[in-house]
Amino acid sequence: MLGRLVYAPQLRAKAANPDDMQDSVKQFTRILSVVERNYADPVDVDKAIYDGAIPGMLHVLDPHSNFFDPKQYALFREEQEGKYYGVGMIVTSRDNETVVQAPFVNSPAYKAGIRPGDVILRVDGKKCTGLTTTEVADMLKGAKGTTVHISLGREGWDQPIEVTVVRDEIPRPGVEFSTMVKPGVGYVRVFTFNETTDEDLAEALKQLDVSKLDGVIIDLRNNGGGLLNQAVGMADMFLDKGELVVSHRGRASAEHSYYAVRGNQGVGVPLVILVNGQSASASEIVSGAIQDHDRGLVVGETSFGKGLVQTQFPISDDTALLLTTARYYTPSGRLIQRDYKNVTLYDYHYNPKPPQAPEVKLTDTGRQVYGQGGITPDVIIPEPKPTEFEDLLERRGVFYPGPQGVGDFVRFYLGERPPITREFATDDAVIAQLKKYLTQERIDFNDQEIQDNLPWLKWEIKREVFTTVFGLNEGYKVALENDPQLDKAIASLPQAKALYANARKIVAERESAARP
Predict the structure, then answer these.
(1) Active site residue 306
(2) Are 459 and 428 in contact (CB under 8 A)?
(3) Spatial contact of 216 and 186, defined as CB atoms under 8 Å apart
(4) Is the predicted pLDDT of residue 10 greater than 60, yes or no?
(5) Among 56, 41, 152, 49, CA closest to 98
(6) Which range, of 48-57, 250-259, 293-302, 486-495, averages the lowest pLDDT?
(7) How far apart are CA 324 and CA 322, in angstroms?
(8) Beta bridge pairs of residue 218
(9) Residue 72 pLDDT more than 80?
(10) DSSP-assigned letters across all residues of 40-91
(11) CB–CB of 374/336 below 8 Å?
(12) Higher pLDDT, 35 or 480
C-alpha cells in the first residue's frame, strides 16, 4: 500500500460564529499566510484567491453565484450588450485545431467567403495549431475598421486559402431566426435575452405581420436566459396590459413585481412556447407568465429550473461579483428554482430530477401548474433519442466537428464539386459518397445501419450542405423540416386559441362580478 507523508504544523481551525465575520476573515488570512510561506512551490496569491477561494465560497452558496476576472467580465458584457468587434463567426475545436462552425450571415467573415468546416491555420501569420478556441477568437477580435489576415485550410484545396477581413461591429441579435413554417403560422427562434432581444422580437413579429397570422410559435429551446427586463418586455408583447409577469424577493431584497405596461394592444394571435431542458432563467419567466395567464400553451420538455436572481456588484473597473440576491416567482406564485442543496453540482447541471413533492398552483382559469422544478409543459413531447449509429456519427464528427471529430463529411463532399443549387437533395449518389467517406475514415458501418437511419442521414446531410453553401438561416430552415416538437407545437395552436378565449371570458366575468 502506498503511504502518504503529511507534515502537520500546530495549526487548528476553530468553529467560528457565522455572524462573526471578523474572526472568519482573520482565520482565512492566517491560513493563506501559512500556505504562502510553506507550500512546496511558489504560490501565486492572486490566483489562489480569485480562482480558488472566492469561486469556492460562492459555489458553496449556490450553483449560479460567480466571480468574473477581467477576461470573463469582458465576455459577460459582450453577451449582455449583444455585440462585439471582430470578423463574425463561431469557431470550435477539433483535433488540436480551430475549425469554423459557421460565419454569421452578412458578417465580414461571411462576405469574405469563409465557410463552415474551414480550418484556421494562421491569424496575422501566427500559427493556430495547439491554441485554444478562446485564444484564436481573441486574435480575430479587434477595433472596428482594422484588418486581420487569415490562412484557411479547406477540403479539396492543396494550398491554404488566404483572406483579409476588415473587422466590424458584430451584432448578436436576441432573435436568431424567424420564418413562416406553414401558411398562417409564424416561427421565431429567440437565442438569448440580451439588450436587443425586445426590439429584435418586435421587428420579427412585424416582418411576419403578426396581426394577420393564425398562430405564432416562440422557440426558447436551448435559451439559457439573460436580462430580466428583456424577459418582461417579451411577455409584455403578448399579455394584457396590467397583468403580472414575474416577481422576486430575497432576504435583503424587498419584493418587486413586474407588470405588462404596454400590453398586446389587442393582438390575440394564438401562441405556443417551445422549451426544453436547456431553457432557463429568462426563458422560464416568459413561459411561466404565458402559462399562468393561459395566454398560450407551453410545449416540449421540462425547463432547467433556474429561478435565482443574480445582482451584479462591480468590484473594480474590470472585475465583478454576480451574487444571488432573490428568487423568481411566476404570476401564480410558483418558485421556478429547483433544488440544489441536496445534489452534486454535476447532477444539478446534467441529471436534473423533478421535485418529490412539487408545489401546486392554479392558472387564471384554474388549471394546475407545478413549481420548484422549472416549467412543466402543457404538452410534453421529448426530443427523439439518437440511435446508436447516429450517436456514433455525431461523436466522430461526421456531419459536425465533435470531440473525436475526424473531419466532417460535407467538407469532403463539397471539396471538388461545382456550386450546389437550392434543388440539392440527398440522393443515392450522395449516400454512396457517404459510404466511401466512412470507409476512408475507418468508421464501422453496414448497409442495414445505413438503411435503418436513411431519413435522418438525408436530413442531416442536406442541413449541413445548406448551412455551408447558403448560410445559417437556410440551414435552420432545413432543420425545421425534421422537428417533432415543432410539429406538435403547430398542431397545438387550435388548443392554444381555445385556451386563451376561455381565459379572457373567465377574467371578464370575474371583473364584472367584482364591480359594485
Answers:
(1) yes
(2) no
(3) yes
(4) no
(5) 152
(6) 48-57
(7) 7
(8) 188, 273
(9) no
(10) SS---HHHIIIIIIHHHHHHHH-SS-EEE-HHHHHHHHHHHHTEEEE--EEE
(11) yes
(12) 480
State the pLDDT at residue 348: 85
| 3, pLDDT greater than 70 | no
Amino acid letter, 235: A
- Which residue type does 367 have? R
Start-to-end CA span in the chain (Å): 85
Greater pLDDT, 461 or 105:
461
> How far is residue 247's CA from residue 182's CA, in Å, rounded to a whole number?
36
- Res. 4: pLDDT tops 50: no
Q: What is the 3-state secondary structure (H, E, C) of 99-127?
A: EEEEECCCCHHHHCCCCCCCEEEEECCEE
* pTM for the predicted model, two decimal places: 0.81
Closest CA to 70 of 162, 138, 165: 138
Helical axes 454-470 vs 428-440, angle rounded to 10°: 90
For residue 401, the model assigns a pLDDT of 54
Backbone angles phi, psi at 203, to 5 degrees: -70, -40
β-strands 215-219, 185-190 pairing: parallel
Closest CA to 170 of 192, 140, 211: 140
CB 284 within 8 A of CB 307: yes
Taking CB atoms within 8 Å and a gap of at least 24, the contacts of 132-137 are 132/93, 133/91, 133/92, 133/93, 133/98, 136/91, 136/98, 137/86, 137/91
Burial 176-207 (b: 16+ CB within 10 A, else e): bbbbebeeebbbbbbbbbbbbbbebbeebbee
Note if 62 is an active site residue.
no
Active-site residue, selected from the candidate residues 107, 279, 281, 492: 281
Q: Which residue has cell 451584479?
A: 312
Taken in order of first residue, the domains within the chain and their CATH numbers are 27-71 (no CATH), 84-171 (2.30.42.10), 175-346+357-380 (3.90.226.10), 388-482 (no CATH)
**What amino acid occupies position 155?**
E
Q: Which of 292, 294, 378, 483 is catalytic?
A: 292
In terms of Cβ atoms closer than 10 Å to its own Cβ (0-12, 13-18, 19+), residue 368 is: exposed
Contact 154, 118 (CB under 8 A): yes
* Three-state DSSP state, 401: coil
Q: Is 26 a catalytic residue?
A: no
The confidence score (pLDDT) of residue 173 equals 81
Q: Which grid cell is 328?
A: 423568481
**pLDDT computed for residue 414 by the predictor:** 82
Largest CA distance in the chain: 85
